[in-house]
Amino acid sequence: MDFKKWEPVYSEILEDMGFSREEDERAALLLSRMLDPAKTVNVSALRALIEGRGVLVCGNATGLREELLSVDAGSYVVIAADGAAAVVLDSGLVPDIIVTDLDGNVEREIEANRAGSLMVVHSHGDNIDKLEKYVPLLDNVIGSTQSVPLDNVYNFGGFSDGDRCVFLAREFCAASITLVGFDFDDENVTPIKQKKLLWARKLINGLLSE
Question: Which end of the chain is more exposed for a tag (fewer CB within 10 A), N or C?
Fold first, then answer.
């Protein structure tokens, strides 16, 4: 992801959501300092998993469990968005990659991580406490940010967990991207979540139409 290309979109998101770029950058710097080289992996591991393969991106909408029954998930690289990891595990699969800002069922994410899932851990201004609590418990970690990338904290594009999964798959040259567990029109969520879903729809549709 070329940050100069992403930055205008990021600035628009910050303005719309009322979030702080300074806090995002503070969180990214904290994550950068926390990452233990012995417990991180190079982004080449993502390319090795994704490039040239079909990717199944699992969002955490209520229909995910049923939708997983309708696809041969074992034939895909499975990328789970945060809380979706628990549903994927309960379906008998270990996600290849979990993209998380650590506000879902982190205990199940740790379970998946111990079973082999790579963890793309996202830093932003609202999850500094979770970074401090959970990052030391994880292995095979790659750090991410939605702001300016650092040497060991990357910006692959995207804003919320689900759309960041899609950007990740595109960044590492997936042959195809299939979405399950996405409900952009879910009315049973908070107003802030509804705004995030609007952005997710916009970002995903824009990316996949390129």
Answer: C
0.90 cut: is pTM over it? yes
57's tokens: 């991106």
pLDDT in tens, 158-184: 999 999 999 999 999 999 999 999 998
Among 86, 143, 145, smallest CA distance to 111 is for 86
What is the residue-wise DSSP string for 5-26?
HHHHHHHHHHHHHT--HHHHHH
User: Token digits for 89?
Assistant: 């595990």
| Residue 37 burial class via C-beta count within 10 angstroms: exposed 0-12, middle 13-18, buried 19 and up | exposed
The tokens of 122 are what? 């996202």
End-to-end CA distance of the chain: 14
- The answer on pLDDT for 113 being more than 90 is yes
Q: Are 78 and 64 in contact (CB under 8 A)?
A: no
Q: Are 165 and 174 in contact (CB under 8 A)?
A: no
Question: pLDDT for 3-14, tens place per residue?
Answer: 999 999 999 999
